[in-house]
Amino acid sequence: MVSKRRLSKSEDKESLTEDASKTRKQPLSKKTKKSHIANEVEENDSIFVKLLKVSGIILKTGESQNQLAVDQIAFQKKLFQTLRRHPSYPKIIEEFVSGLESYIEDEDSFRNCLLSCERLQDEEASMGASYSKSLIKLLLGIDILQPAIIKTLFEKLPEYFFENKNSDEINIPRLIVSQLKWLDRVVDGKDLTTKIMQLISIAPENLQHDIITSLPEILGDSQHADVGKELSDLLIENTSLTVPILDVLSSLRLDPNFLLKVRQLVMDKLSSIRLEDLPVIIKFILHSITAVDALEVISELREKLDLQHCVLPSRLQASQVKLKSKGRASSSGNQESSGQSCIILLFDVIKSAIRYEKTISEAWIKAIENTASVSEHKVFDLVMLFIIYSTNTQTKKYIERVLRNKIRSGCIQEQLLQSTFSVHYLVLKDMCSSILSLAQSLLHSLDQSIISFGSLLYKYAFKFFDTYCQQEVVGALVTHICSGNEAEVDTALDVLLELVVLNPSAMMMNAVFVKGILDYLDNISPQQIRKLFYVLSTLAFSKQNEASSHIQDDMHLVIRKQLSSTVFKYKLIGIIGAVTMAGIMAADRSESPSLTQERANLSDEQCTQVTSLLQLVHSCSEQSPQASALYYDEFANLIQHEKLDPKALEWVGHTICNDFQDAFVVDSCVVPEGDFPFPVKALYGLEEYDTQDGIAINLLPLLFSQDFAKDGGPVTSQESGQKLVSPLCLAPYFRLLRLCVERQHNGNLEEIDGLLDCPIFLTDLEPGEKLESMSAKERSFMCSLIFLTLNWFREIVNAFCQETSPEMKGKVLTRLKHIVELQIILEKYLAVTPDYVPPLGNFDVETLDITPHTVTAISAKIRKKGKIERKQKTDGSKTSSSDTLSEEKNSECDPTPSHRGQLNKEFTGKEEKTSLLLHNSHAFFRELDIEVFSILHCGLVTKFILDTEMHTEATEVVQLGPPELLFLLEDLSQKLESMLTPPIARRVPFLKNKGSRNIGFSHLQQRSAQEIVHCVFQLLTPMCNHLENIHNYFQCLAAENHGVVDGPAVKVQEYHIMSSCYQRLLQIFHGLFAWSGFSQPENQNLLYSALHVLSSRLKQGEHSQPLEELLSQSFHYLQNFHQSIPSFQCALYLIRLLMVILEKSTASTQNKEKIASLARQFLCRVWPSGDKEKSNISNDQLHALLCIYLEHTDSILKAIEEIAGVGVPELINSPKDASSSTFPTLTRHTFVVFFRVMMAELEKTVKKIEPGTAADSQQIHEEKLLYWNMAVRDFSILINLIKYGRLFVEAFLKQCMPLLDFSFRKHREDVLSLLETFQLDTRLLHHLCGHSKIHQDTRLTQHVPLLKKTLELLVCRVKAMLTLNNCREAFWLGNLKNRDLQGEEIKSQNSQESTADESEDDMSSQASKSKATEVSLQNPPESGIDGCILLIVLSWWSRTLPTYVYCQMLLCPFPFPP
């Protein structure tokens, strides 16, 4: 082929010139040498040119490329052979190189030699490679030329140090360096390395970068170590070369120890590195990490990296805000965008490292997990958790667990999360799907703090990410809402509410997703329906979003469909949705700054839409009393929480007031006539009317008409053809009326205050002797009448509780007394009416299954004969009223004192039955507003002076007595439990209606927990007053009865009511201070103010006291009440309250001892009990208090030894009904509780003892040995539980046996004593196993297999301990008889009696010898469950009796060699 391609000289010149002109590319240089004509072939007689030409390369002048006529390998081979065969070899080498040096003195020629050659191919050679190497590169591939040419290049290179690019934009120094890359063979690598490092030392910085980054492509593996050392030295001298050096070191094969030194050097310099250099440096650090040092390196890197670089400077944060608003400044935008790019590149490097190195991701998570302080947690930590979560699927569960623990402990808070998103949203945006997946997982938690964190992830993802991510966020929230999980639905709806307020325009773009929830309303609770329709209505009727008619149309369709349904559940959805939508449509926007006055006011058209919608709801619900009542309640809530437009409010107020008067109000002087089953009387009036203007509530006739019409009977004297309204709507309608009047008149209720003191048409409610003679229907009628009266009074109290005048306060207190009296009467009726179902008091329930039947409305008109107005009272009427109130107050006298035991027993039984009935009826009472508890400010005894301006003065004492106080405290306690108790603590039992726990708290649920806490804090001072008054009451009671609080002179009913008040107050305090919301920073001020109230009761202090001081004073204040605690339940609540206060303190050691001391006092106190046969102390409460005592005491073992060693023997030696004298709470009924708690705590305690090690000092060994001796002594007393016995033996194996291994030689006697005691315990455990087998007690036998296995391990472990201490001869084997608890031999062992006796006698005889022998196992048992016994004889060094450790075991080989 070569011969065919060879051309003649003339042809060569012409063809090459012609081809070159045709195929010439764009000129590489604009300069031309004078001595050469452009594009001509180099004509030179030098040996260099001739040899190249002979070998197949034609050198060109000017701007043309050198031409390669043959294959590259063929050229190198031809030239090599020509040089070797030359007569003057090796001198010809010098001449050739000298010719090269002369040739490349011309700049254009040198450039052409560095650029690739042009291939000259004929058709036959067209299959060859199109890429050609440069002439220099081809020459470097010839071994005999390589050293000389390298030397020439390095000598030529300095000429171009300060000439970065020529006129053709060609970088000659970089081109020279590139010739050395990827050589097939380096002849003298060491010399090349030396030359390169010398060149680096003198080259300018930009060329240094190029040469250093090219090193891995130039040098062979054998030179990597030397180059690495040189570069590390250079790294110390020149920090500007850090990035290229580290980049190269990552690519070289270096010793790990050497890399470790370099890494440490870089870590020390990390604080002085520029942001743009950071990605390369982090890449080197991460690539040099090993499994051994990963955690240490990551911890140091995490600390330094975050502090210096990963919190962007303020200008960079400002630029990000500009980017979000699409308004970048052109002048500084490039610089700031570069900084952002560096951050993104940095995290890309980290992502790559953790994706391929599991060690790095695990170490990073571990480093974050080990960070304990709140202040040490950085933005960088959260970003890394998100990155690892999105990168490594295997670590997702681990990261979720770490995050949950951090959130619970308060280490990761909302401010940190917000900073993370605001600073690094560009990085997090790419992980949107993973972040939403994490949020979804967190929302499945039962912990409210974790659920809140998950909701914040959704919120900030929507706020900071782009449109696509926002759509994903809304889609995920809709999925949660449709899941049916109550907690998820609540949280997701709350997030949607926030997003609608945060960014309504963005939410409008995703409204179609939210609208889809309307198809899944079946599993949503009423409160959640309110939130959903609020979101949709806000989107549909927002003034900023005019193009939302499709949402309005869909909502109208759904609401009309639901309202027309005959199923109450769907009608409820329609009512709630319609009222919520009407509230948004009629909202008062006059204060909105973004709307003009015309757009803010409600137009006539809009007002008509609102009224027509409300009239539609009214007409669709009037056939059902429950639906009507729900409509009134929903409308009342709307008026209470939303500010309506004045036009809409005026229409509502006018309509409601007239309708209420028509429906329920009649003249008090005209008693209704009719065929009523009971005589009708006007009762519970607070005024005596001398005129005809008096009004009354027409309750009994309405109820009778309803029930009578329902049964199909004739109409009463009410005019036929007039509308009959259900009395069920009385309380809801009045609530709506009251709130409407209150809103219209700025809180003034003078227009309706006549309803506070007006009487009610009832009958005599006190049953007396006629109760037994009543029919079931009559009793049910009376119960319904009392329920409706109670609910009326409750709403009256709700309405007027905040009135300030003494007269109005007195009336409200009287109504409160009426409520308490009526509840007592109601209990009497309920006790003899077992199948009675009360009328509903709360109507936002999902089902009416608890309602007996639906009322069919009939036409009957209730004529209005009176007018609701404020009555002007005369002096006489005031005095008369005062007398009436005094009589009512005095009628509540205490029961006649009698023998306390019998009274107490009767009252206790009655109280339990009463509380049970009231608890069952809780859902049927109207809810008290949180404002009602302002009545607590009145105190136990308050004097009101009711006088006129110029007449005589009348004085009346109105008392908030213990029954009324207890009524209020019980209701407040239930409200706090509903709102402040974590969901995990009040989970709804399986198969129970999920909404049942919220029935009766619908108004409360519409407020936040912060609002409730704030309201209760306003009551702290009066509650402290009541607490102190009750404390004084019991102190005086004890003093009067010589320290006996349950003496015969004690009024039993009063005592129990006061005791219940005490318990409820402590329960309220505990629920308040145990609220988890105090861990959030925004609620810290609430905690400070509450603690200040408590501490100020002890001594007046400054408002700026530190938290620790406030906690200490509050603790002391509450601790002072322990002396007057009347019941065990109160004692437990006081202890728990003190523990809650203690948890918020950092210095709690001393207070912890006080709690233990207080708990011991309560355990050692004699608690009053009327029933001598059974203690009034609940087992659960005793269990809780005993656990608190043992957990807080200094030495659990000493405490257990005291109870078990002192209290139990006292109980055994006492009479049947007596108790321990030291611990009176320890009786025969409570013995099991004491026993179980002590055993469980003993097992927990020994598990906490660290196993001994050889490195421990002798003193530590002695202390631990002493501790174990105490533990085994306690175990000997408490061994009778198989379950805890096994757990203790397991702890002995794991914690104590390693200690004995190292203590045996130095503390031989102590170890022998310990094992001797433990031997007796294991023998008893063996007897327990036999006992369970004989009696076939399944509760015991289920623990036997695990116990036997544990005892086997004990024997093997003791043998191992002896072997370790060269005393293996002391281990003997033998059989032990199976016995029961009385020590009698179990019958199944009779066949082995002789063998076992011989074995035991043999061991006894051998015990005194100086050397022990191993006794072989003879006559194995018939079944494995009987087993055989291993005996460990440790009498070698002991002068006492032989020590045996017995253990029944199955026949199995030992893990140790014989």
Please give a structural write-up.
The chain has 1458 residues and is mainly alpha-helical. The protein has 60 helices and 13 strands. Strands 1-2-3 form a 3-stranded mixed beta sheet. Strand 1 and strand 2 form a beta hairpin.
Tell me the span between the first and last alpha carbons. 86 Å
Across the major sheet, the strand order is 1-2-3
Coarse morphology: flat
Strand count: 13
Secondary-structure blueprint of this entry?
Elements lengths: L1 H4 L3 H15 L23 H9 L1 E2 L8 E2 L3 H14 L5 H13 L3 H8 L3 E2 L15 H6 L5 H11 L15 H7 L10 H14 L2 H14 L5 H14 L4 H8 L6 H14 L8 H10 L6 H17 L3 H11 L5 H27 L1 H12 L9 H13 L4 H13 L5 H15 L3 H12 L4 H17 L2 H15 L4 H17 L1 H6 L1 H5 L10 H15 L8 H15 L4 H18 L11 H4 L3 H18 L3 H17 L4 H19 E3 L13 E3 L11 E3 L1 H12 L8 E2 L9 H15 L9 H4 L2 E3 L13 H25 L5 H26 L28 E2 L13 H17 L8 H21 L20 E7 L5 E7 L2 H19 L21 H4 L3 H9 L2 H21 L11 H22 L10 H15 L8 H13 L8 H16 L5 H15 L15 H14 L3 H17 L18 H18 L9 H20 L4 H22 L4 H28 L2 H4 L2 H21 L28 H14 L21 E4 L14 E4 L9
Parallel strand pairs: 2-3
Antiparallel strand pairs: 1-2, 4-6, 5-8, 7-9, 10-11, 12-13
Offer a concise description of the structure:
The protein has 1458 residues and is mainly alpha-helical. Helix 3 (47-55) crosses helix 4 (72-85).
List keywords for this structure.
59% helix; disordered C terminus; flat; 60 helices; 1458 residues
